[in-house]
Amino acid sequence: MDNTELAAAYIKELEAEYSSTRKCLERIPFDLFDYKPHPKSMQMGYLTLLVAEIPQWIKVMVEEGEVNFKTYTHSQPTTTEELLAFFDDNMAGAKNALQSATDEVLGRTFYLKNGDEELYSQPLLEGVSSTLNHWVHHRGQLTVYMRLNDILVPSIYGPSADDRTYE
After folding, report:
1. Which of 38, 63, 142, 147 has the least C-beta neighbours within 10 A?
2. Is the sign of the CA dihedral 159, 162, 164, 167 positive or negative?
3. Record's family (predicted)?
């Protein structure tokens, strides 16, 4: 499979995960953003923003070739509508970046940095694949937080215990 075929496959994966991810995000009340199921766990708000933001990483990876913790800025939506708009923009950006990328761009190396310190590097398309897996992992965490707070968990890969359409 060549680079553009892989990019097209990643776009399909983004599209396949979009709806269920958006359904999760739209159900998270901002008044629960401070919730943590355990002292070592991240706050629900941070996790929610992370799930909404991760597609943006793909755009930055493809267009800039690196993510740098020192310069990367995080959005701070204050309403569900702003959160969903942020997520939708990130999804569109990731898809557009992958669709527009040349074989040359897709074949280059991706760098994760903290300022001038290189934390790691890897082929860009391997980084996109890892990022998609990372995104799905954190969405899974978010569904656990949802369950613990009696927030209805949407159907993701099949009916959830809260999805009554299978009865």
Report:
1. 38
2. positive
3. Belongs to the DinB family.
CB 123 within 8 A of CB 131: no
Residue 110 forms beta bridges with which residues? 122
Look up the pTM and report it: 0.93
Q: Which pLDDT belongs to residue 3?
A: 84
Tally Cβ neighbours within 10 Å of residue 140. 12
- Burial (0-12, 13-18, 19+ Cβ within 10 Å), 79: exposed
Closest CA to 7 of 121, 108, 75, 90: 108
CATH at residue 105? 1.20.120.450
User: In terms of residue numbers, what domain contains 110?
Assistant: 3-166
Query: In whole angstroms, what is the distance from residue 72 CA to residue 74 CA?
Result: 7
